[in-house]
Amino acid sequence: MDTITTTGGATTTGGAAIEETDRLIASDKVEGTAVYNRQDEHLGAVHNFMVDKSTGRVAYAVMSFGGFLGMGKSYHPLPWRVLNYDTQRGGFVVDLDRSRLEKAPTYTAENMPNWSDRTYGNRVDEYYGMSPYWGMI
Amino acid sequence: MDTITTTGGATTTGGAAIEETDRLIASDKVEGTAVYNRQDEHLGAVHNFMVDKSTGRVAYAVMSFGGFLGMGKSYHPLPWRVLNYDTQRGGFVVDLDRSRLEKAPTYTAENMPNWSDRTYGNRVDEYYGMSPYWGMI
Q1: In this complex, which of B17, B50, B56 lies closest to A26 when CB atoms are compared?
Q2: Are the CB atoms for B96 and B82 separated by under 8 Å?
C-alpha cells in the first residue's frame, strides 16, 4: 500500500479514479487494503465487502489471505464495525490476535457461504461479539 | 450482465467470489453493474462507489460512461439512495431521463472533485433532490 494523502487526496492510476478523503473512501480503494492487528501484524487484505442493498450499509468486509492466483485462498468475513481505518498506516486495524482469527468463521472458493441465509452473518457477528447487523437501519 | 441467481446465488470467476443475495451484494459486483433509467435506456455502469468510513454507509455511486481504456471517460456521481437494484434486469434503475443527467454534476479523470469538501457531495445530493447524506448516521 502506498502512502495515502488523506486530505483531499485524489490520484489517478490507469484512468481509474482512486480517492480518499477524511470521511469517504472509494470502494475500489477498500478492496486490496491491508488489514493489521493491534500487535502490528499483517493479517491479510480486504478482498471485497458486502453491502446491504436496501439500507446502503456495509455489513461485512471479507479479508483474504494466502493462495496463488485465487487458488487456495481463504476468506475471513469480518463485521465492518470491527475495522478501523488508520490513515497513518494506510490500512485497516482490528483488535484481533492470530489465535482468535484462526478459530473464526472462514471459507474457501470451493466452500462459499450462503449469505442470503442470515444464519451465516449472525454467526460472524456473534463470533466477533457484535449485535446482528440486520437490526441496524 | 449475466443473469443473476438472487437466492443464495454464489458463483466464482477466476477465484474471486461473486455473491449476491436478497439483501447483500458484494462490492466488486456493484462495480461494473449496468445502470438503466425507467425508460429502459442504458445510461452507463457503476465505476465505483464512495463509502463513509465512520458510519459504514454508502454515500455515492459513481457511474461512468464513454471513453476507451479509461481515457475520455466521464463520471457521474449519484446519491446511493436514488439507485434501485432490479434483480430481474441484473442492474440498477434510476428515475432519471437523459436530459436531466446531461445537466448533472460530472467530471473526468483530469478534473476530479474534492470529496473531502462536503460542498461537492452537497451539490450532488441537491441536484437529485436528496437531503445531504452527511446528516445520516
Answers
A1: B50
A2: yes
Chain A CB contacts of B10 under 8 Å are 112-115
Chain A / chain B CB contacts < 8 angstroms: 149
The rounded distance, in Å, linking the Cα atoms of A27 and B31 is 8
Q: What is the pLDDT of residue B78?
A: 95
Picking from B28, B51, B121, the nearest residue to A48 by CB comes out as B28
Q: What's the gap in Å between the CA of A115 and the closest CA on chain B?
A: 6
pLDDT class of B12 with cuts at 50, 70, 90: very low
| Statement: the pTM of the whole predicted model exceeds 0.95 | no
Q: pLDDT tens digits for B33-70?
A: 999 999 999 999 999 999 988 788 999 999 987 766 55
- CB count within 10 Å of CB B61 equals 26
Q: What is the pLDDT of residue A94?
A: 94
Buried b (16+ CB within 10 A) or exposed e, B36-57: bbeeeeebbbbbbbbbbbebbb
ipTM greater than 0.85: no
Rounded CA gap, A7 and A20, in Å? 8
